[in-house]
UniProtKB/TrEMBL annotation:
Gene Ontology MF terms in the entry: ABC-type maltose transporter activity; ATP binding; ATP hydrolysis activity
Protein name as annotated: Carbohydrate ABC transporter ATP-binding protein (CUT1 family)
Record keyword Ligase present: no
Family the entry assigns: Belongs to the ABC transporter superfamily.
InterPro entries for the chain: AAA+_ATPase, ABC_transporter-like_ATP-bd, ABC_transporter-like_CS, ABC_transpr_MalK-like, ABC_transpr_MalK/UgpC-like, Mo/tungstate-bd_C_term_dom, NA-bd_OB-fold, P-loop_NTPase
Keyword field: ATP-binding, Nucleotide-binding, Transport
NCBIfam families attached to this UniProt entry: PRK11650.1
A UniProt-annotated Pfam family: ABC_tran
Domain ABC transporter: 4-240
A GO CC term assigned to this protein in UniProt: maltose transport complex
């Protein structure tokens, strides 16, 4: 395996549209890196440039010690797993798995040994004599994964490989792929992976690190916990987390040296745990509050915003409480056992931000201005 580096990589199309804006990214050997972002953020374009399926119009792609800009896909030491599996319909699973090795004219006994090894790892031995049309979606995806694995490439590239599967199967395949990655690392065969998805659940549960993209720019690269707890900007804060972070316009002021926040016509003192982190003067900010970090209390309670319930979504062990705060509707996640069953639309409640978990973002640049210095 090898590390992967993108250095000032750009993509500009013939009509002048610039899809990728000079991005820099380093994927360590054996790392599972996820590229995530909304549709149109250029994550798949970036993956295709790594693969050699899309030309690079600026910068360098380096795999190991070699710059691969001008190499065809087959010479880059990569293997790619696609959304639609791309299995050969007329070939049985055994030949689908071994096709790449046969093209390289490897010895027959080595091909058979590799096929046996890979089919055992992926638990598809019983499928070897079936045609692709006889496979379920999950089985076909495992065969596609095996066809990549058998090549022992420098880098594995995954382009939204689970998006065609139902929710239950996606969950089980997430576990299979991450377990396989860990097993290969433990066996001394670390797999360097770049995995593209629009699904933040896949990103958060699978990636060693995650690269969040927007409009052809990298917004932040970090491990899942850091992205959730310390988003670099409002976009990352709003994109990562379910339900998504509440982002509301607010005004930061100071009363006798004590910072205060005003939003929706209400003012509260900046909660403990947040005040000492603020690195911006008074003025307009964006207040970021994750639904899980709002405490339900009585209307008019100290340190809480008073809001009017507009909807209650029962999720089993918790309830998503939607409430109007000024012109905005915010969401709080409340444990079911803590919710008064008599609450209904139109009732007024208090929602108290938990200070250490709240963020302030610059209203113009979106930069997080409430991260502790040096972090």
């Amino acid at each position: 395996m090898a590390e992967l580096q993108l250095k000032s990589v750009e993509k500009t199309y013939g009509n002048g549209f610039k899809a990728v804006h000079g991005i820099d990214l380093e994927v360590e050997e054996g790392e599972f890196m996820v590229l995530v972002g909304p549709s149109g953020c250029a994550k798949s374009t970036t993956l295709r440039m790594i693969a050699g399926l899309e030309t690079i119009t600026g910068g360098e792609v380096q795999i190991g010690s070699q710059v691969v800009n001008d190499l065809v896909p087959g010479k880059r030491g990569i293997a790619m797993v696609f959304q639609n599996y791309a299995l050969y319909p007329h070939m049985k699973v055994r030949r689908n798995l071994s096709f790449g090795l046969r093209l390289k004219r490897q010895p027959k006994d080595q091909i058979e040994s590799a096929t046996t090894d890979v089919s055992g790892i992926l638990e598809i031995e019983a499928l070897l004599d079936r045609l692709p049309k006889q496979l379920s979606g999950g089985q076909a995806q495992r065969v596609a994964l095996g066809r990549a694995l058998i090549k022992q490439p420098e880098v594995f590239l995954f382009d939204e490989p689970l998006s065609n599967l139902d929710a239950k199967l996606r969950a089980s395949m997430r576990v299979r792929i991450t377990d396989l990655h860990k097993r290969l690392r433990e066996e001394g065969r670390p797999a360097t992976v770049v995995y593209v998805t629009h699904d933040q659940v896949e990103a958060m549960t699978m990636g060693d690190r995650i690269c969040v993209m927007k409009d052809g720019h990298i917004m932040q690269v970090a491990d899942p916990a850091t992205l959730y707890e310390r988003p670099a900007n409002a976009f990352v804060g709003g994109f990562i987390g379910m339900p998504e972070m509440n982002l509301v316009p607010a005004v930061l002021t100071r009363e006798d040296g004590v910072p205060q926040l005003t939003t929706g016509g209400q003012t509260i003192a900046v909660p403990d745990g947040l005040a000492h982190r603020i690195s911006t003067p008074e003025g307009a900010v964006t207040l970021g509050m994750r639904p899980q970090h709002l405490e339900l209390t009585e209307a008019e309670a100290p340190g809480a915003f008073t809001a009017e319930i507009v909807n209650l979504e029962f999720m089993g062990h918790e309830v998503n409480l939607h409430a109007r705060l000024g012109d905005a509707v915010i969401v709080a996640v409340v444990p079911s056992e803590e919710l008064d069953r008599n609450l209904a639309r139109g009732d007024r409640v208090g929602l108290r931000p938990l200070g250490p978990r709240i963020h302030l973002f610059d209203s113009e640049t979106g930069r997080n201005v409430s991260l502790a210095q040096g972090n």
